[in-house]
Amino acid sequence: MNNGDSGLNMTEGSVPRLLVKFSLPMVAQMMFVVVNNFVSAVLLGQFVSAAALGIVAIVMPIIFVTNSIAIGFTTATAILVAQAYGKKDLAGIRKIVDTSLVLVLITCAAVMVFGMTNTGLLMKLIKAEPSMIPDGTLYLMIQFAITPLLFLQFLLFSCLRGIGDSKPTMYFQIINVALTITFTVLLVCGPFGLPKLGIMGAALAMGFSQLIVDLCLVAKLVRSRSVVCPRLRRLKFQKDLAWITVKLGFPTMLQQVILNVCSIFIVGFVNECGVVVTSGFGAASRIDFVAFAPAQAICMAVSMMAGQNIGVQKFGRVKKIFYWGCLLALITTLVPAFLSWFYPEFLMKIFIHEKGPIEVGIVYLRYNAVAYLFYAFMFCGEGIPLAAGQTWVATVVSLISLWAVRVPLAWYYMNHGMKEAGIWLGIVIGLIAGSVLITGYFFSGGWKRKALTPPTEEPDEAAV
């Protein structure tokens, strides 16, 4: 394939080799995000306060809820692009990108306006401590202002992954991290006589770096005449594609909303335990991202690789992709699980130095150490039905595991003698329940019977 095609055909060849080749840049990209989060957390925790780190932690679910809309649309776009690429339909890919761009632009404008006009209400919703509300409101206001920049990056990265071209996303993430760290040091720490802007500086740093990266990414796609380059002068909005995108994207969007509204409730429970617990939770939750980020990247690779193969109805090959994906993802979670169990105090002291929050974080990390291993099955299990266009499956699993298990158990244990430790236990049990449900669905074969492309009678290949 040519004519602007820089993708990777993953419908033929060794499954483990292709999966490693495709996922490594994505894992590297995620690890650079981890580095960025680590540095930002250290700067806030050490140069501002533990409370500043806690503020960022408690407002993140709000930001994720709004971003979930973009994630829904762009996930649907990636599914459609992957299946079209598997069938070598470049013209179809261009139509998908055009239509998705229009949808994302309209949606992000609505999210930005709503968020910027309701920050105070949102801070009350998460039951933030009064002392945290002023800085939290300011941080949220800036985050909503840069929403269009983030939404555009979601879309372009998803399109590139859909065609199997994961290297540009890694390169631009490296640039993004380098810029964000640089701006954060300048605006938070205030070297060279610059003003120390505290938590506002951290938010502005993200905005400045995002703007530069988006401009460079679009310029790169235009120059290379990529098949997924936005055609701003001749956008062709396809109503039928828009409907398919919305139909596929809505369950994913709903799943993200379910997940992040659940997080808001969990944060509310944490805030009821006091500022010390909130600060400890804010620092320890940074370790969570380190634990599941590589597994999540492998899941995205599994989903895109499976999508191409589902597009040409190679369902036996999809099983291989799932098994190898689980193995690779499991390997990546072993190290953070080991460190969280045996060296939690060391991990906490990277971010903060107050004794009370550190003790809270130690307990949290030990509860989650075992749970980290289940992320491999959870993420890869979600990736297969997602690739088949069955975006509702992960939504149903999230609804059950979060709202029938995690939130009720966290509330119950917290109010029946366990306090904050009860919240941690509820989180762990909910994750295990979700992993069991989604893995069970994969083995049921339901994803194959209802794929976007009708299955053939092709016999399954060997599992490995």
Structure description:
It is a single chain. This protein is an all-alpha fold. It is built from 17 helices and no strands. It has helices spanning 15-47, 50-86, 90-116, 119-125, 133-145, 147-162, 167-189, 198-224, 239-272, 275-311, 315-342, 344-349, 355-371, 375-387, 391-418, 420-444, 446-449. The radius of gyration is 22 Å and the shape is globular. Helix 1 (15-47) runs parallel beside helix 7 (167-189), helix 2 (50-86) runs antiparallel to helix 9 and helix 11 (315-342) runs antiparallel to helix 14 (375-387). Mean pLDDT is 83; it is low at 450-464. Helix content is 81%, strand content 0%. The protein has one domain (15-449).
Secondary structure elements and pairings:
Layout: H1 15-47, H2 50-86, H3 90-116, H4 119-125, H5 133-145, H6 147-162, H7 167-189, H8 198-224, H9 239-272, H10 275-311, H11 315-342, H12 344-349, H13 355-371, H14 375-387, H15 391-418, H16 420-444, H17 446-449
What composes the largest sheet? Answer: none
N to C succession of SSEs: HHHHHHHHHHHHHHHHH
Helix content: over 70%
What is the assembly state of the chains in this entry? single chain
Q: Report the β-strand fraction as a percent range.
A: under 5%
Number of strands: 0
**Radius of gyration, CA atoms, in whole angstroms:** 22 Å
Question: Which word captures the global form?
Answer: globular
What's the tally of helices?
17
Question: Stretches where pLDDT falls below 50 for ≥5 residues?
Answer: 450-464
Q: Which structural class matches the secondary elements? A: mainly alpha
Whole-Å distance between the termini? 29 Å
Domains (count): 1
Q: Mean of residue pLDDT?
A: 83
